[in-house]
Design goal:
- There is one protein chain.
- With about 180 residues, this protein is an all-alpha fold.
- The protein has two domains: about 80 residues; about 55 residues.
- Helix content is about 75%, strand content about 0%.
- It is built from eight helices and no strands.
Amino acid sequence: TSARAALREELRKRTVVGIYKQLAKVLHPDLEQDPALRERKHTLMQELTKAHREGDLHTLLRLELEWINREQGDLARLGDEKLAIYLELLEEQVEELQESVREIPYASRFAAVTRFLNPLTGEPLEAEAILGDIRRMSTSLKEFRDVLAGPGALRELREVLRQFGEEQRRQARGGDFFDDLF
């Protein structure tokens, strides 16, 4: 397996160099007479050079496919070996993307929205259910604000704090405070 991985890496390196040389020949802007096309080739050549320097096979393959589709429209120019490499790279990319999607609920930058994921499946909760929860919470907060602005505010606040204390004790035994509130 390690011999196969080494062979695949060598093939990838040769592919990177081969694609770079092939595309550099056709994309070099100095060979273009049309100023607009020369500018486009200049931009593509910069992207090509950066991808070659970084060993970015995905970008090189994308540039090659764009060139083939634009110039020839002929995928038959790609050999079976190169198509197999494309397929393998695309499959790896799909796996990486699927893994990224699975990791979203655990990424710190998404912490604010992960509360909207189903805790069992990790799938997003339906927007309507979320909006309904927000509406109910908003209504409860408005009602509570109105109560606190009224004449019996101190009595109401004491009652809420008493209920909260009871709920804390109940939760310690396994209950849910928010089910009773909303």
